Task: structure prediction
Amino acid sequence: MNVLAIGDVVSENGCEFLRRHLPNLKRINSIDLCIVNGENSAKGNGITPESAEMLFNCGADVITTGNHAYRRREMYCLFDEDEYIIRPANYPSRNPGKGYVTVDMGRYRATVINLMGTYQLEPLENPFTCIDRILDELKDEKIIIVDFHAEATSEKKAMAYYLSGRVSALFGTHTHIQTSDEQIINEHTGYITDLGMTGPVNSVLGVKPEIVIEKFKYNMPTRFDTADGECMLNGCIFEIDDKTGKTVSVHRIDIR
Result:
């Protein structure tokens, strides 16, 4: 099966660019499952019911999130109501939503897990012990894909080796910078440190550069406005053997 993972979609510009390019991208590459990180898809920040609907209309099958999952209160109910919108599994269990979902596509069946790193992010449950518990619950599932939303490249790479042979693929999100280290670890687990983002090219993580420069220079409270202009779509395609659960090829995507 072919799994397409799309990097953090940023605001209205990113959603519109995704709408224009995702259907054709899926068709050309015979995509069976499309996973989109949507935690920044709303105007301003976070995810809203409106931006989530836009991502599904674009062609997302599963929406993952991260540290901005709960920024917009209007999403709380939808996290509980829509099983295909997931939040990091290592948030407290009483929080709205779930940390993974199993998608039954008839011929194929795959589980998508959302996990968040703790280095320079929120002090959540240790992601390594959290994923152990989840994989125990999913011991009968063959195809497992992980969105690891984390700051440190070392934490992402360590998780990939930790899960090597236990999951089909792991991709990093959060930093909005696409890495060029796509690989298959130990002939089993597809991996890329960060998918990148879907949003404005001439920006700092999707934000107008001058605003971020001002923030770094003076460290004063600043309103982050989304940049305008040319956009890009970053992601990765994992070809997974449905009989073994192993990734057999990894292909990085960068559309401008």
Observations:
- The first strand starts at residue 2 and ends at 6.
- The chain has one domain: 2-255.
- Residues 24 and 75 are 29 Å apart (CA to CA).
- Helices lie at 11-28, 49-58, 76-81, 127-137, 153-163, 209-218.
